[in-house]
Please model this.
Amino acid sequence: MRLLLIGAPGAGKGTQAELLAKRFGIAHISSGDLLRQHVREQTSLGQTIKSYVDHGDLVPDAVVLDMLRKPVVAAAEAGGYVLDGFPRTVAQAEAAFAVARTLGAEVQAAIQLDVPREELVRRLLSRGRGSDDTEEVIEHRLQVYLDNTVPLLEYYAGREWMFAVDGSQPPEAVHEEIVARLKKISALAGEAW
Ligand code: ADP
Model:
C-alpha cells in the first residue's frame, strides 16, 4: 500500500502515519523527521538545510527528492509506505510522480488532514519541539503551508484517490475514518492492496 498524508503543521500527520504504518505493516517515511535527523547528526546535508528547517522555510525540492528517493523505492519494493510531509509543493508532486511512474509504483491514496487554524496553533505551541516551534516560526510555517501546499491540494482535487478527513477528532477516530475511506477506494480500484 502506498499512501500520502497531507496537512498543515500540527494537523497530526505523524500520529496518523504511525497508526497506518502499524495497521498495514508499511514503512512510515517522514520527510521532516529525516531532515531533523540530518541536522542533529550534523551531516553535510544537515548543515545545508539547518537554516531552512529552523526558520520554517521549505528545504529546496531537489534536496528533499534526493534524500527520499532511496528509502521510498526500498519501501515500495518491501510492501509499501505512508509518506508524511512529502510532497509539499506541486513541483515535488510532479517530480515524484515521474519517478513513481517509471517504477510502476504510483501512489494509491492521498489523505488530507483538515484542522482549523486555531486548533493547529494550540497544538503546535503545546508541542514545543524546539527551534522550529516558536510562536513566530509557527506563524511562518502556517503561511508557507497556505502558499505552497494548499495549491498542491488544489492540484490533486477531484482525483478519485484523494480524500479529506476531519483531523480535529481524537486520533483513533481519525484513524478509523481513514481506514474506512481506504477500504472504499481500494474496492473501487478493484485491486488488492
Ligand atoms: P510540520 O508537519 O509540523 O510542518 P514536518 O516535520 O513535516 O513538520 O517538517 C518540518 C520542516 O522540515 C518544515 O518546516 C521544512 O523546513 C522541512 N520539510 C519537511 N518536509 C519537506 C518537504 N517535503 N519539502 C521541503 N521542506 C520540507
In short: The first strand starts at residue 2 and ends at 7.
